[in-house]
UniProtKB/TrEMBL annotation:
Domain UmuC: start-end pairs: 2-187
One GO cellular component term noted in the UniProt record for this chain: cytosol
Protein name as it appears in the record: Y-family DNA polymerase
TM segment ranges: none
Record keywords, A-Z: DNA damage, DNA repair, SOS mutagenesis, SOS response
MF-aspect GO terms: damaged DNA binding; DNA-directed DNA polymerase activity
Taxonomic lineage of the native organism: Bacteria, Pseudomonadati, Pseudomonadota, Gammaproteobacteria, Oceanospirillales
PANTHER family noted in UniProt: DNA REPAIR POLYMERASE UMUC / TRANSFERASE FAMILY MEMBER (PTHR11076), PROTEIN UMUC (PTHR11076:SF34)
Gene3D superfamilies hit by this protein: 3.30.70.270, 3.40.1170.60, 5' to 3' exonuclease, C-terminal subdomain (1.10.150.20), DNA polymerase, Y-family, little finger domain (3.30.1490.100)
């Protein structure tokens, strides 16, 4: 059996762990640069605010003290996610993170009654040890486990834990009750196309002919249909296929045409991309750099260039990637435009263990390759142990325009010694 543990309103819950006064209040967490709402508490949803609402439209509610909006604090959220995972690993050796707030958990060797009790204990322990509320869905397949988790979240009678068996009357009733769009991997357009052939519920999809589904739609939807029947078609490793390209980009805190500041931003993006490249064991053959002006500022001239630079050889060395990114930036930068966003994309990725040079690639000596690997390894280890950005190439200027706007950032309570929570006793 497979369990899916989903943290409820994860970003808001992380903030509430260290700020109990936020409990019961309408709270939202904003995107980078405090642009729009990306996480909402149930209280915020209840007053009609939806995901993606621009933050500036809510400022009148903030000024009246009716809602609280916070800047996203990813360092805190990442650490809390690791703590949730550590608790789950006490209940199962097979824990696979699916996202920062969702994790699949393997359950084996339990009778149905034992399994329900085990899932309920897990539900309580995660909240007790981390302060994060979760819902638990358990079923024979990943798709059914996701569906069971949704049922646990939406139906109060389950009290946060739902265990489903394939083909039972309970599973059939739930699949008929929820909308087709509630299923994992079934989007709005797919719902419309399925409705044309009379498939309107999850149960209809589970009973449909898989070969017909594959022929008319895709092999992915065929797998979904089979998984709803309890036939496992998705492995956990399917979620961890190396990415074919790595993009690192971000909007600048304010419009700028300062080449020095833009160069700093590209340097940070390039270094972050190289870290991701090494973590998945890949090498890049090319680097693409792009800039964008603000398309909504019609009063300003528009210019959104990009250019790709081929690397001398496949590499994961931050220095070579930054050198290529710098060359690309020099080629596309024009001083008379105000840029809103820029980024670095690593392209044509290959497996580092299966590297095969072409006739046009510049070879690298074994000594150089080993020095590069050691240097990058030490940098990654230090940044992992002591916090991202502890060791970096180039020092960003404080107050530069490309820095994120995060006026409502809370403390990184669990990862910074100088930001630990303070308790006052009377």
């Amino acid at each position: 059996m497979i369990g899916l543990v989903d943290c409820n309103s994860f970003y808001v819950s992380c903030e509430r762990v260290f700020q109990p006064r936020l409990r019961g209040l309408p709270v939202g967490v904003m995107s980078n640069n405090d642009g729009c709402v990306i996480a909402l508490s149930p209280e915020l949803k209840a007053i009609g605010i939806t995901m993606g609402t621009p933050a500036f439209e809510l400022q009148h509610l903030v000024r009246r003290g009716q809602i609280r909006l916070l800047s996203s604090n990813y360092e805190l959220y990442g650490d809390m996610s690791a703590r949730v995972q550590a608790v789950l690993e006490e209940f199962s050796a097979g824990v696979e993170p699916y996202s920062i707030d969702e994790m699949f958990v393997r359950f084996g060797g339990f009778t149905p009654d034992q399994l329900l009790e085990h899932a309920r204990q897990l539900h309580v322990r995660v909240r007790q040890y981390t302060g994060i509320p979760v819902c638990v869905g358990v079923a024979p397949t990943h798709t059914l486990a996701k569906f069971a988790n949704r049922a646990a979240k939406k139906i109060p009678a389950y009290r946060g834990v739902c265990v489903l068996q394939a083909g039972t009357a309970e599973t059939k009733a739930l699949l008929q009750r929820f909308e087709l769009g509630d299923l994992w991997g079934v989007g709005r357009r797919l719902v419309e196309r399925l409705a044309v052939i009379g498939i309107r519920t999850g149960w209809d999809l589970a009973q449909a002919d898989p070969k017909r589904i594959r022929r008319q739609f895709s092999v992915t939807l065929e797998r979904t249909a089979l998984e709803l029947r309890g036939i496992s078609c998705i492995e956990m490793n399917d979620f961890h296929e190396p990415r074919q390209r790595i993009m690192t980009s971000r909007s600048f805190g304010k419009l700028t045409n300062n080449l020095g500041e833009i160069r700093e931003a590209m340097r940070q993006h390039g270094q972050r991309g190289a870290e991701k490249l090494r973590s998945q064991g890949s090498l890049a053959r090319a680097v693409l750099v792009f800039l964008k002006t603000n398309p909504f500022r019609e009063d300003l001239p528009q210019y959104s260039p990009s250019v790709a630079v081929e690397l001398p050889r496949p590499t994961d060395d931050s220095r070579e990637i930054l050198r290529a990114a710098g060359q690309a930036l020099e080629r596309i930068y024009r001083p008379h435009y105000l840029y809103q966003k820029g980024g670095v994309m690593l392209l044509d990725l290959i497996d580092a263990d299966r590297q095969q040079l072409s006739l046009l690639d510049t070879p690298q000596s074994d000594a150089d390759r080993q020095r590069s690997a050691k240097l990058m390894g030490v940098m990654d280890e230090l940044n992992q142990r002591m916090g991202r950005g502890t060791v970096k190439l180039g020092t960003p200027s404080p107050g530069a325009a490309w820095h994120l706007r995060c006026a409502n950032l809370t403390q990184r309570y669990s990862t910074r010694w100088d930001e630990l929570p303070v308790a006052n006793a009377r």
